[in-house]
Design brief:
Ubiquitin-like (UB roll); BamA/TamA_POTRA; three-stranded mixed beta sheet; alpha/beta; 3 domains; POTRA domain-containing protein
């Protein structure tokens, strides 16, 4: 009884003051995006004072988010229960969602289309999501850079009439090891190290190759009593490519 009276008193005070603190934010009929994803698009959250103007702005923000993701004519309405349970509800009508019917890779790929498509998370006959496509582009850029293309760039285009998604790939020039330079290393050790490391002269630089080179070199010298080993890439004196510097 005491708890009920206290709750009633709090509600009456909030009503008189014209303020109400949100207890819960709820999204209804959102099939394409999770509650967590939509919550990142709005300002109001549980624990904050309810504002009708902000709720309207948040509803519009959700509509814009759907539109940017390729949905046609999304509509969002809000309902708020002032006294109890102080719940803010976003009622969502998503509208017609876009799908990907065709997926193309354009440019000098350097790798098989099947291998590159395996990196892409967007699938045929599934929903087109702008953010997911952006993530796919980043994954492709990371792949090419890890394969020795530091200036790789990816652009995308979604043709709404044909429902066709195209990735335009510009991988740029592949970075190579122009020379391997040793500092403070005995001649016998240089010969042994060159056999151990995966990075070779006139061969492409890869992130994995650089990591394995660092580990192999550190292990080799540690077994011989050296505890300081520096392995790094330096700009080649001749221009574009790089030199691999190994120093102890």
């Amino acid at each position: 009884m005491v708890a009920i009276c206290f709750r009633l008193a709090a509600c009456l005070f909030a009503l008189v003051a014209g303020e109400s603190r949100i207890r819960e934010v709820v999204f209804e009929d959102n099939r394409a995006f999770s509650d967590f994803t939509l919550a990142r698009e709005i300002e109001l959250s549980s624990g904050e004072i309810y504002s009708e103007a902000q709720a309207t702005a948040d509803a519009r923000a959700i509509e814009i988010f759907y539109q940017s993701s390729g949905f046609e004519k999304p509509r969002v309405k809000t309902v708020y229960h002032w006294l109890w349970p102080r719940k803010l509800i976003f009622k969502i009508r998503e509208g017609r969602g876009p799908t990907v019917r065709r997926l193309r890779l354009k440019g000098k790929l350097g790798f098989s289309a099947s291998r590159l498509k395996g990196i892409i998370g967007t699938e045929i006959n599934r929903l087109y999501e702008a953010r997911k496509v952006s993530e796919d582009s980043n994954h492709l850029v990371s792949f090419f850079r890890n394969q020795g293309y530091p200036h790789a760039e990816i652009a995308t285009d979604y043709d709404t009439s044909k429902r066709r998604l195209t990735f335009y790939i510009q991988k740029g020039k592949r970075l190579k090891i122009e020379n391997i330079v040793f500092s403070g290393v005995a001649p016998d050790d240089t010969t042994a190290i060159k056999r151990l490391i995966p990075l070779k002269k006139n061969k492409p630089v890869t992130v994995l190759g650089l990591q394995e080179t660092l580990m192999a070199t550190a292990r080799y010298f540690r077994n011989r009593g050296y505890y300081y080993v520096d392995v790094r890439l330096t700009r080649s004196r001749k221009g574009y490519d790089v030199e691999l510097l190994i120093e102890v």
